[in-house]
Amino acid sequence: MTEHPHVPMLALDTVWFQVAGTICNIACTHCFISCSPKNHSHEMLSLADVETRLAESLRLGVKDYYFTGGEPFMNRDMIAILRATLKQGPATVLTNGMLLRREVCRQLRELIDASEYSLDIRVSLDGFDAASHDAIRGEGVWDRVMIGLRNLAEFDINPVVTVTEAADGVGSEEGRAAFLALIRSFGFAKPRLKVLPLFRIGAETTRTRAYEPWEKLTTLGEDDASVLQCSTSRMITSKGVYVCPILLDYDEARMSDSIEESLRPFPLKFGACHTCWVDGVSCRT
Amino acid sequence: MSDVTRIALIGGIYSNYHALVATLDDIARRGADATFFLGDLGAFGPHPDRVPELLIERGIPGIQGNYEESLASGRADCNCGYTDPRDNVYAQISYDYTFEHTNDALKKWMGTLPQSMRLDAGGKRVLLSHGSPRRINEFLWRSTSPDAFLHRLCDEHDADVIVCTHSGLHWHKAIGGGRHAVNAGVIGRPANDGRTNVWYTMLTIDGDVRVEFIPIEYDHATLAREMRAEKLPEEFIETIETGWWTTCLESLPAKERMASRF
Q: Which residues contact residue B93 at a Cβ distance below 8 angstroms, ignoring those fewer than 6 apart?
């Protein structure tokens, strides 16, 4: 049997919430947890669920909070959840941008103005145009995201546009520059861009391929742990506390009921762990 | 040092020796029981030998920043902690220039600096560090440093007052229980507010803790001229002349970025 290196828990800085579970209004072909309108493997979190975890996080001195899904704005409590969170720390929401209606953006603006902490909205794009974006995210999605981005711009909310490497050429300097120009053209004078690699799990295994057996970590140097987000973060879902935002389809990645109990080493035995280490990935902004 | 009550704190200097001279003059005028520098003596500015030479000449104590740690250990980059590719391109230009123009004796001296200092001032345990008490290149911004997290840092590092720099923007939070977190700001470049002055910090401890951020005007036109003569990037010079950051700003959180021109 192969021995896998264990990542230590260095300090719990970031708490993630799978706030919409695996429920999404679209079904991207690269989604590493295959979210869709019908995927209920993780259910939505209620405001009360989140408040309980926020209280736990406060005791543990957590530094920041992230919300993802599925599509977070499908959760009807989302604005109330952000309001509760922003009382105690900074928050980031990862969204596909389709549900950023004017009224939602107006409420987000109010939250931003009322809190001493930062609220970041991260909007996913997967191409330079409707054809490439919709090939991954579904027909008509691009047009709806454009409306969402316009609404954000109207309320002077500057999003971080997140692009996966599924978008051709985004990894190159020219590709980056082209994306920054595109974001500028949407009306954001200070374009912000984050590029993420793909994880070859979930739906992505069908779109491209699954991990090869050799794509596993066999050793972990003394200083390597600090670059892995699992050394500083945990993920809350309807099923409990998971090691990270990526491995939600694996029962072994569920660590405990309480956050405190989850603060222990974890075996890096998954192909996705290899991606995080090789690409130096952090899902944080 | 239990009798120390007024402590002057100088954040990142970034080779801006004109600002350092003006700051030291101001501290002398106001009076302080002690003065400390908090690291990152070099970066965007010209002639990186001048700042450490002046600090040594005046006998001012202080701690390493990531720049001193990198220069002293011969590291190939500044370990600034940026994640954006454009930020890293400019950080590398700045570091390569500084590395090339810092003499070996000064690099060796930088290696002798501690990474933190503890002071007992008026019954308060004050901890000086560069990025944060736990990491030399951690950015502590006001809008992403919640009270509970700052309490954790105080608990884990046995401190009542934690002082840092590195991010470039000054702030102070009284977090309850007599505890304080202070980012002393920097005198190396303006605070990204459209003003050309820079900022240092005066900490007064007299039972209570008072934090005063002091703006320093200096001869920024001469600095800009010298930077041009050294062929440093025009983007760095623009920041000195306008007060707006043009590079190394992608790490700004949403709230701080909102107030930023670029």
A: B232, B233
